[in-house]
Each structure stands twice: as structure tokens, then as C-alpha cells.
Amino acid sequence: MAGGVTAPSRTGEPAPASGAGSPARSRSGSPARPLRILVGVVGLAVTAWVVCTVFLAFAWYPQAFGGSDILIGLLGLVLGIGGAIVFFLFLNMAIEGLPSRLSGGVIPYAFLLPGLSLIGLMLIYPTAQTVIYSFANDRSTQWVGFQNYQRIFASGAFWQALLNNVLWVLVVPAITVAFGLAVAVLADKLSAPGEKTPKAMIFLPMAISFVGASTIWGTLIYAYARPGTAQTGLLNAVVVALGGEPQTWLQISDYRLNSLLMMVILIWLQTGFAMVLLSSAIKAVPEDTVEAGRIDGASEMRIFWQIIFPQVRGTVIAVFITILIVVLKVFDIVYVMTNGRNNTDVIANLFFRKLFTEQKAGEASAVVVVLLILGMPVLIFQVISFKRQEGGR
Amino acid sequence: MTGRMKAGRRRSPFAIVTMILLAILWTVPTLGLLVTSFRTREDAASTAWWTALFNPFGSGWTMDNYTQVFTNTNLGSTLINSIVVAVPATVLPIMFAAFAAYAFTFIKFRGKEILFILIVALMVVPIQVAFQPMLNLLGPRGLGISGEFVAVWLLHTGFGMPLAIYILRNYMTGLPGSLIESAKIAGASHYQTFWRLVAPLSLPAIAAFATLQFLWVWNDLLIAKLFLGGGSNTTIIVALQNLLGTQGQGAELLTAGAFISMLVPLIVFFSLQNFLVRGMTAGSVKG
């Protein structure tokens, strides 16, 4: 049945009571082939052992590789890919050795095993552990009940950070999607070659890191120089040209101006992403629906809101949520530009400071649990909309 | 794709002008960085960068910032580190995710829906929740690999997994089901179907995920800072952030350093952006 490429023979007609256990042959499928199972299982173990050992050796004995980062990187790449290929090969071999009745049921779990194990190890286990830490003292040696939560809820800094986080969430996704949509609509009114370059120019910042973007905006746009000297920051240059006084923008917390200025950076980075996805959604809108509106003499505005928008609403929501998730845990920009000074703190930055600067692991865990809870409505929304989408397939 | 123009609609001058303005506005900061990185320290401090643009022959241009960055700072070696971090961390999740996505798309099994919902949910979970337990697990009291490349590869592989599975599965559901069905009838096992049919057909989605993951890993500050530290293995983004902290002395190197840190992701981004768009839109736009 299943193509036996590597197994030399069909040994063990009356399958010994090893491995899968049941010696009963299914009427339609192939019988168990213990040799394949054995080779597969041994191969799996050896592959896993070799890969783990060499990867640990990279970390423990980098000198053994001449201390060469490039060599370690190359070996890691080759061993990682090769190891994964060989791993799945043996996994498949072991499963095909099972009686076919069993193997059909086992194979999906086998395919999921490595990926889901990694998710379990790096995401599920630590999440549970962090929740546990949030009820323990800073060295996680003793339970302290809700004390960590009481402490953070009692501090003004926490509420300040929470308020700013809410502000980021309210402002950035909405404006980014609005810009992205506007640009996508405008681009759609240009000729095909004509829209390419401007779209690429707006898409470009997506490749720039938060740190790089903060460097750009901090030194070229928001920079401050004493009055009377040349203003090297664009914003102050404009203000001075209009007859104003240069400002240290990132220190002005009135109306959360400094936070808003940092939000501009994120909007600049993400608009291209929104535009690209929305643009392809708009292009997928059937032309005849738009044409019908035009024949009825509807204005372009009306056509957009009543014909195009309802058809791209799904994408608008998807893009909005994606950006929302990014904004919820915004860290780099605030950390690099102000580190939370002048009322600009956000939850993720507060977490970082609690954990490393103040060395308060318990409170840090409580802060990050709050971040997790803030994300819950988004999470539930995602799950519901996913289920609805699956139902529609 | 001649789009709507074929329909005989006139071009909108308003759209043309606005798009050009927006495109320029969006490029100004990056352009400013590029211009400043080639200016001498005195020029950069005494006049604004756009004056150099309007008066290109009256200003001092120099490559010094770039040579200085490579000779006087560790940015050159951190550039290599970034590549050593980012390439394996981009490639390693792909095969694990592809097999998982295959199972989620083409095989019926118990618990399929709940497991996939878990993956959708995990994409929302902030990675900060993982830091403290992972620092303990990988740190000196645990495996003792914190500070080494292996630790960061492992973390990025794990953190990237939900997105990878999600993107690949979305794409695979769009593949023609009849093709997979006929392979099954011809007697191919799932393993063979995966390698011969599904993996090659999913290459656009794989490229899309690889682009996103590469950008994310290259541009990451948090994980690199926490799990590689500031030592000899640190990435260029962490080095840039440290440079940003030291004001005054060497401030002119900052712009050159920032531009160097952006170069590789920009090349990757522009060479793979068509895949990126195709792979990302495959599943999401249907809704």
C-alpha cells in the first residue's frame, strides 16, 4: 500500500507483541512491520540526540568551532534543516511501520508534534509559569497572594502607563487603517505603472526597525537646538520659520503631546502594511458592482462608502486587529526615545523596568499578566471571527 | 493589471497630486537619514540636513561616518551577528510549521479545531509573558545557553511558530483540493504528498512568512537584548540602541549606523515583497 521506499522487506508476518501492540491484521490495511518501527524510532532518537548535542555544543563550547560566528551560523542552518528533514523521515518511517489502520490515525499528530511541542515549550508553559510567578515573591520562593497586584494597582506609575497604553491603542490602529485605506483608494485611481512607485515608497518603512525609526525621528524630526542656533530638527525648523520658539518636543506631556509624537512614528511604519493589504482587497472588488453605481449616477464618495467599503470591511477589520496587537505591546519606541519619562510610560516598558532595573520579578509578572488580560478581548474576537470564517468555507 | 483605467474612467488629478505628496512625505525621514549619514560632523551639527540637499555643492560630503562606524565601533561585527541570528531563526520554523499546517489543512483528526483555535489565540499573546520563565530555563541555572545564538534561534523559532502555521495553513486551504485527492487515490502517503505536491505549491506562502520573520528577527530589540546580552554576540539593533544612548561624542556615527542596520532588511524586503503581498492576502482577503 503505502510506498515502501526504504524498508527492505516485510518482516514479522505474525507481528510480535511489541510496539503498537495489536497483532490483529486489519482486513484492508497492511500489517505491522516491526523492523520499520524499530529503525524509525531509533533513527528519531539518534537524530534528536545529535541535533541537541551539537546545538548545545554551539553554546557551551563555541571555541570548538574556532569561535567563528559565521561557522556556527552555517552549521546551525545546515543541521537545523537537515535535522528536521531526517527527523520527519524517521517519524514517517516509524508510523508507516504501524498497521495502516493505526498509522492513518497517528500521522496528523506526528506532523503536529514538533511544531506544537515548540509552541508548548516557548509559549504555553511560560505563560502558565508567569501567571504563577505573579502570585509569588521576587525570587519565586514564597506565595504572596495578591500582594504584587495590590502593589502595582496602588502605584500611580502603573495607571499612568495603562492610560498611555489605552491611548496608543485608541489612536494608532484607527489612524493607520484610515491612512492605509485612503492611500489604497487613491492608488486605485492611478494607472497601474503610476501607482507602483508611490506605493513602494509608502511601503518602505515597514522594513525599518523600531530602533532605526526612533533614531530617524529623534535626530532628524524632533531634535532640539537652543534658540538662535540652526534647528536641525524638521519640526522645530518649521516652528521657528513660523516665528515660534523651538521646543523639546518629547518632554511636553500636555495633552500627551510627546506620546502622540511617538505614535506618529508607529503610524509612519505601519501605514504601508495596511495600504498593501487594503489595496489588494479593493482591487478584488468586482468591477460591475462599481459600474452599476456609476450608471446610477452615484458620487465617488457614495460609491466608496456604499459599494466598495462593505466589500472590503473584512480586510479592514483584519488589518485593524493585526495593528492593534502590535500596538498593545508597544515597547521599543518608548524605551528608546523616552524610557517612560515625562508621562510617556507604557505597560511593556513598565514591565521591562520592573524586571531588570528594579529587579522586582513578582510585580513584573503581575504587570505582564495585566497586559495579557488587556489582550483577552482581542483574543476572543479573533477566535470568534476565525470560527465564523471557517463556517463559511 | 491595467485595473480600472480600461473601464474608460478619467484619471483623477486630485489622486495623482495627493499620492505624490504622500509618497514624498513618507520618504522624507528616510531620505534625511541617508543625507545626514554622508555629512561631516560640523555640517550636521550647524545646519539642517535639507540645506545640504538644496545646496549640494556648498556642503561638505564625506564617507568618514561609514569608515568610522566600521573602525571605531563594533557595528561591523554586530552586522555579522545579526545575519547569524536572523537567517537560521527565519528558516528553522518553516519545516515544522509546514508539516503542522499540512495536518491542519488536509487531514481529519480529533481535536483539530481546538488545536488550531489555540494557535489563533496564541498569536495575540504578548511574548513578554515568556521572558522570565525562559530566562530561568535558558539561563545559568537552567540549560546555560542564554547569551548564545542557539538560545535566540530557539526562541524565535518558538515565537514565530503560530504565525507560520497560520499563514501556511491559510495558503494551503486555497490549494486545489482535487489535486491532493488525486494524489491520495494514486496511492501516495501523506508524507509523499507533502513533499511532492504541497510543499512546492506553498512556496509563495513560505516566502511570505520568511520575509515577515526575517524582518521581525532582524529588527527585534527585546529578545536580542535579553537573551544575547550586550557582549560579543549582540545584534546590530542592540548596538544601535546603545549608540543612541551615548549622546554627544560619536553622534554623527548614529545616522550611518542606522542606515547600515536598515540595508539588509530593505534588500530582503524589496526582493521578496511580491511574495509577501501574495502570501499575506491569500487567506485574509476572502473575509
From TrEMBL, chain A:
Its main location: membrane. It is a multi-pass membrane protein. Residues 162-385 form the ABC transmembrane type-1 domain. Pfam families: BPD_transp_1 (PF00528). The chain crosses the membrane at residues 35-58, 70-94, 106-125, 166-188, 200-225, 260-282, 303-328, 364-384. InterPro entries: ABC_transporter_permease, MetI-like, MetI-like_sf. Residues 1-31 are annotated as: Disordered. CDD domains: TM_PBP2. It is found in: Cell membrane. Keywords: Cell membrane, Membrane, Transmembrane, Transmembrane helix, Transport. The keyword Membrane applies. The keyword RNA-binding does not apply. Residues 14-31 have a biased composition (Low complexity). Belongs to the binding-protein-dependent transport system permease family. This is Sugar ABC transporter permease. The lineage of its organism: Bacteria, Bacillati, Actinomycetota, Actinomycetes, Micrococcales.
TrEMBL record, chain B:
Residues 79-272 form the ABC transmembrane type-1 domain. It comes from the Bacteria. The keyword Transport applies. The chain crosses the membrane at residues 12-35, 79-102, 114-131, 151-172, 193-216, 253-272. The keyword Cell membrane applies. InterPro entries: MetI-like (IPR000515), MetI-like_sf (IPR035906). It is found in: Cell membrane. Keywords: Cell membrane, Membrane, Transmembrane, Transmembrane helix, Transport. Its main location: membrane. It is a multi-pass membrane protein. SUPFAM superfamilies: MetI-like (SSF161098). Belongs to the binding-protein-dependent transport system permease family. This is Carbohydrate ABC transporter permease. It comes from Brachybacterium epidermidis.
